[in-house]
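Encoded backbone
================
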Amino acid sequence: MAKTWKVKALTVTGTATERVENGIHIYDPGKQEWLVIKEFDDFEKAEKVLLRDGRLFNAVVTRVTLAGRTWTVKDFSTRPFFVRPFGRLLLARELKAAHYVADIDGFAAEAFRLDENAVALTFIPGKTLAELPREEVTPAFLICLEELIKSMHRAGIVHLDIRSNGNVLMRPDKTPAVIDFQSALATTGMPAWLKKSLEALDMSGAYKKWKIFQPDAMGEKREAELTRINRWRRLWPFKGYFGLPRRK
């Protein structure tokens, strides 16, 4: 039997999303009207594409097209009972981060909880940098990525996993987007030294991409900063979400 979600709570990530009695209203600025998603009860009729089954400690990620909208659904419900509580914490972090950056082009515009083990976020079309040949990732793209990261930092969020090429997209218009905020942290109230260090760690993700895709155009300043961050990054005790090494 196909899974059906009942929305128990909605994390609002913008002024154009609201919880209603029979579902969720989302404002479509293109059509200038409110669309209704009836609590994903029509999930059996939706177009579904499995994007990533993931490892034991990762969510199952599905692209769902429903009521004219396309969503990325992250779901821990099929994971073992001892994983699901940690999965809920990761999803809560993702929703919180989505709230901070929802108004910035390059991040998911809307996000809400489907149930305690699953969330839906606006699907962002594009290809991950891991899927692209080197020549397609231009210096102009990488400069835009740096600016996007700075915008995220100004909004009060550090991503902490931008070094992964799977978390940065090139959209159809050749502009960058950043996905997967399960490692993210809000920097409000952080000591200044810690905030600065974590923001530098994020920026090193962009510099790493310069090193991979455009080393000749990287410049001495980026090279030196990447080398500096890599020195102290070796002391970072955590790998991935649960201290596990990432799959190559």
Observations:
- The first strand starts at residue 17 and ends at 20.
- Residues 1-29, 31-39, 241-248 have pLDDT under 50 and may be disordered.
- The helical segments are 84-101, 139-154, 192-213, 220-233.
